[in-house]
Amino acid sequence: MLQSSSEAPPAARGVRDGSAVGARFISQLTRDTFAIILAGGRGSRLQQLTEFRSKPAVHFAGKFRIIDFTLSNCVNSGIRRIGVATQYKAHSLIRHIQRGWSFLDGRFNEFVQLLPAQQQTDACQWYQGTADAVYQNLPFIHRCKPEYVLVVAGDHIYKMDYGRMLAAHVRNGADMTVACIEVPIGDAHEFGVMAVDGEDRVVDFVEKPQRPPAIPGDPQRALASMGIYVFRTRFLVEQLERDAATPGSSRDFGKDIIPRILADHRVCAHRFADSSVGSPTRTPYWRDVGTIDAYWQANMDMTRPDPELDLYDMTWPIWTHQKQLPPAKFMSSCGAHGMAMDSLISSGCNISGASVRHSLLFSSVSLLAGAQVEDSVILPEVEVGPGAVLRRCVIDRQCRIPEGMAIGMNPEEDRRRFYVSPRGVTLVTAAMLGQSTAGFL
To answer: Residue 320 in 3-state DSSP?
Structure first.
């Protein structure tokens, strides 16, 4: 049970004590926070997987959409006033949120509100950057009257108690707090990278630098921004209005807001390890599934006997919407047994005389007699024909794999028909197979 912290400094009184492993900061602090999730990302590095949907709406781990992890983190942290800013190919995402996230009770001032790009400040402009997406929704934020605003990306896979980050923000007397994660120095050029002093105050911030600054004392690692920010509302409004009036600004937190405020304001780094949810003996799990290889690998991570990200931990559940479907079914056909090993098989699947190894099947997938699936991610409503073989594949929704087709066996042949990633993962969509994409979302 959580205990109130009588030792807390005056600025943090009323904040729950999170020193114990697993403690939550569901308190007046989280109730006074509004979260805005930036979910308008194009996700172009996911190739044709985002041809009909935005990155946050992409399916993940057999049952979920990517955005479910961020939304669940908010709800589980006690932050239940949430806005979702959408833009790029948002229909699938909007439909998912309407169906799966309507359980919050508006009578208690709890909600998930969709915030589509509406050109609210300029009839000629959609969201120009991350900061602009928040700026254009300031009227809605003002109506909610929050003390704090949490700005968070909606396209990463992780479990995090945002309440601990909020509490650290208050304790540190910060104007802005930036969540960060340690990454190898060779990968840091893909992130916003920060340099910090001995008290984790940010002294420099560079977006996607060619020569990233290393962590003091550890030249092989850097502190990368997770795209998660906490502000006191008044300070955020001041900075967004200033940025909107600045000619030439790209309207982005990483490129404009953070570098501009470092000299005159207190910006603190918050280590992901201090608020990640999971076993304290494990490395905190956070993944940007922005490429086909990263997406495939993160799904494969879920098939391990003891994955680093525990989907079965009911103390921090991942909420979602899914159709009510019958249980998965395994049957014999043509003298062969339907079987699956080291795999996740979702509801409504029918494995008829086929075999599945080290793979992840979403709902309503049918595998017919003699089909073999290995090291693959199969999205909903796919049918794999008799004798077909799939190796290291991502098969998009509603594909019909013809009888006897082999995919993932010959990269050169696959490249003529499908997309093959740098690590040899083959992406297959219905359009690549010459099939209809009606009802594809």
So the answer is: coil
Question: Is residue 217 very low, low, confident or very high in pLDDT (cuts 50, 70, 90)?
Answer: confident
Over residues 78-100, the pLDDT tens digits come to 999 999 999 888 999 999 999 99
Per the annotation, where are the binding residues for alpha-D-glucose 1-phosphate? 127, 192, 207-208, 225
Report DSSP state, residue 123.
T
Residue written as tokens 């304790």? 171
d(CA 251, CA 439): 35
Alpha-carbon distance of 414 to 411, in angstroms, equals: 5
| Phi, psi (deg, nearest 5) at residue 209 | -75, 150
Q: DSSP letter string over 244-310?
A: HTSTT----IIIIIHHHHTTTS-EEEEEGGGTB-S-TTSPPPEEE--SHHHHHHHHHHTTSSS-SS-
In this structure, the number of other CB atoms found within 10 A of the CB of residue 332 comes to 12
Only one residue has tokens 């700026």, namely 135
pLDDT in tens, 415-434: 999 999 999 999 999 999 99
| Vertex 2: Cα angle to 272 and 168 (nearest 5) | 35
Secondary structure letter of residue 328 according to DSSP: P
**Measuring CA to CA, which residue among 141, 147, 88 is closest to residue 113?**
141
Cβ neighbour number for residue 207 with a 10 Å cutoff: 16
CA distance 301 to 314: 19
Query: What CA–CA distance (Å, rounded) separates 366 from 333?
Result: 13
139 and 120 Cβ atoms separated by less than 8 Å: yes
Annotated binding site: 127, 192, 207-208, 225
- Tell me, what's the pLDDT at 121? 52
- The tens digit of pLDDT for each residue in 271-304 reads 999 999 988 878 899 999 999 999 999 999 999 9
Cα→Cα distances 185→149, 181, 223, 380, 423, Å: 31, 12, 9, 37, 21
- Distance (Å, rounded) from C-alpha 169 to C-alpha 156? 22
Rounded-to-integer distance, Cα 314 and Cα 319, Å? 10
Distance CA 30, CA 53 (A): 31
